[in-house]
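hey so i finally got around to running the thing on that chain from the lab meeting. sorry it took forever, my laptop kept dying and i had to restart like 3 times. anyway pasting the input first so we r on the same page abt which one it is
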Amino acid sequence: MNKQLKCTLQWILGIAAAAAAVVILLITAFEAAMYLDFSYYQKEYEKYNVLEDLDMEMEDVMYVTEEMMAYLRGEREELRVITTVDGVRQDFFNEQDRFHMEEVQGLFLGGMRLRESAAVVLVVCVLCLILMKADLLRILSKSWQIILGVLLAAVAVLGIAVARDFNAVFTLFHEIFFDNDLWIFDPATDYMIRMLPEGLFFDFVIRIGWMFLLGAGILLLLSLAAKRRWKKEEQKRRNTEN
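ok and heres what got predicted. didnt touch it at all, straight out
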């Protein structure tokens, strides 16, 4: 393998590793935002007066939430939760809820599998770089900074779109990922949409966003530190040669 081809391949591996890290970080931020602290749901329910809309006790709403989120992780076979709603002991979810949430579960579990695949890609790329005796610190740090620059531009565009018209972005997301209109609910007949108002989704998007950017920022600092270390080692090597 000639030197130019080897250098190009190393940079391709570095960019692929950085891209895989982004996928891992994004899905982890999503999972952390949704599962790390269930008290956040309670605060959101209080913020949007969900208890009043459902005529339920907070304990019951939280029970429904925990069971629903367990279902999305594949920890429940079926989405049936008996609780007291509007003063009646009944199943909180109807058939439309179950159909839509089954599709959401498919997306969620698909995301988990995608993260696992990205982790494999990351490890393989790093191992290949090591075997090729590449300048690991320089390639990985620079690759992350390149990917992060592209990513921040995309996040900025998405952030502007969300700030201007969250409903349009929310609708577009569903039109892309679902091939039916069963994600459109009627608050008069569907308890789930009363429990999960649009404002709650907006708040979770913001929560996922800052968690993701926090992780990206930490990796940026690490990449800058790695770049600084590489420069010191390179300068030391040159001094030794001279």
